[in-house]
């Protein structure tokens, strides 16, 4: 592979949270960036996201820990700027299994075991903490605007083959979520995990988040944002049905109301379905066998927002590495 010039002309495929965060980081490191996507940011799976900083159906490893920590630090900084749509919210993760995964808590300064008197029926324990909650429509619009201020250009079209981008780019970053692998053809390990959610008006003035993945009736989470509340959910692997299921919705709402009775009076604003781009490990690497520099950045499962800034920073490191080597 020939040595890359610096700054680079980089094309990012995808304008979900991974593509936009990556475009932002690349442009703020001096690269000239173009984003190509066939869905606008507010049409992506990212826009449906709840979105709480919390790893869920995503890689659990030391490498992913670095991405989690970096993303948490950036969201904390962004929570100081009201226009971003990022807020820090206290809440708790209910645990119904002795081997509950508390790995998220080591990143969260005020995390602690919840007093047993506050647990719902059937829960063994719970862990509480203050984490970022992101109102995605506000956040994605803000992020796209920031990208444009850094000179990022946006094009709306479908990319049929990565090779078609060779003429205008030194490097391509593939941040196409569920559809990334089809552009590479060498990866059959991405699969959908269907998520259905309800958006309620926050007339109850709820502030604290709650998650209960092992609720006997099915996954349950309640994420209060600025003016609304996202109630979930489902985690059906390999289910590609994008239609809202009314029965599922009423069961989800009933579970949520059993944990937070004040939700009963909140107006239902809309129902949404999205497919989480799941993979055992996030694909975040230079792709070999391509006749140009291609960085893969996909497979974030139910944690794309939670891992977004760490992923973006890693892409910059992967691209800048050869240029840095020449300075040594
Ligand atoms: C119900 C639900 C709740 C969730 N809650 C959370 C949460 O609380 N916290 C969290 O961290 N995560 C959550 N997630 C997961 C999160 O939404 C995803 O991990 C994340 O959105 C993935 O982002 P992405 O940028 O990789 O993909 P996407 O948002 O799907 O964006 C993909 C982009 O690639 C473009 N694209 C793809 N292929 C092509 C092509 N060939 N040509 C042109 N453009 C192309 C699309 O147009 C789009 O712009 C949730 C997901 C769901 C469904």
TrEMBL record:
Keyword Flavoprotein: yes
Annotated signal peptide: none
Enzyme nomenclature, EC number: 1.4.3.3
Domain FAD dependent oxidoreductase: 10-318
Name used for this protein in its record: D-amino-acid oxidase
Catalytic activity: a D-alpha-amino acid + O2 + H2O = a 2-oxocarboxylate + H2O2 + NH4(+)
UniProt family annotation: Belongs to the DAMOX/DASOX family.
Keywords: FAD, Flavoprotein, Oxidoreductase
Source organism superkingdom: Bacteria
Cofactor(s) recorded in Swiss-Prot or TrEMBL: FAD
SUPFAM superfamilies per the UniProt record, alphabetical: FAD-linked reductases, C-terminal domain, Nucleotide-binding domain
Organism: Glutamicibacter halophytocola
Enzyme class: oxidoreductase
InterPro entries: DAO, FAD-dep_OxRdtase
Keyword Flavoprotein: yes
């Amino acid at each position: 592979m020939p040595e890359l010039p610096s700054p680079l002309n980089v094309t990012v495929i995808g304008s979900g949270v991974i593509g936009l965060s990556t475009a932002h980081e690349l442009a703020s490191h001096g690269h000239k960036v173009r984003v190509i996507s066939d869905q606008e940011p507010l049409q992506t799976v990212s826009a449906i996201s709840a979105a709480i900083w919390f790893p869920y159906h995503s890689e659990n490893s030391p490498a992913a820990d670095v991405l989690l920590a970096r993303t948490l630090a950036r969201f904390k900084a962004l929570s100081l700027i009201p226009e971003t749509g990022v807020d820090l919210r206290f809440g708790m993760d209910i645990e119904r299994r002795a081997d509950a995964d508390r790995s998220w808590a080591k990143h969260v300064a005020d995390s602690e075991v919840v007093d047993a008197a506050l647990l719902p029926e059937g829960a063994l324990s719970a862990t509480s903490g203050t984490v970022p909650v992101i109102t995605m429509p506000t956040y994605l619009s803000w992020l796209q605007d920031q990208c444009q201020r850094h000179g990022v250009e946006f094009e709306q079209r479908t990319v049929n083959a990565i090779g078609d981008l060779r003429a205008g780019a030194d490097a391509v970053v593939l941040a196409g979520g569920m559809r990334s692998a089809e552009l590479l053809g060498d990866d059959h390990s991405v699969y959908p995990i269907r998520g259905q959610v309800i958006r309620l008006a926050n007339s109850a003035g709820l502030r604290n988040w709650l998650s209960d993945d092992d609720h006997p009736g099915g996954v349950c989470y309640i994420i209060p944002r600025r003016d609304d509340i996202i109630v979930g959910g489902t985690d059906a692997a390999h289910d590609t049905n994008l239609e809202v299921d009314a029965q599922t919705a009423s069961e989800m709402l009933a579970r949520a109301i059993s944990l937070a009775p004040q939700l009963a009076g909140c107006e239902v604003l809309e129902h949404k379905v999205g497919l989480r781009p799941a993979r055992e490990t996030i694909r975040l690497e230079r792709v070999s066998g391509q006749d140009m520099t291609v960085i893969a950045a996909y497979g974030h499962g139910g944690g794309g927002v939670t891992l977004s800034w760490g992923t973006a920073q890693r892409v910059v490191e992967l691209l800048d590495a050869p240029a840095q080597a020449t300075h040594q």
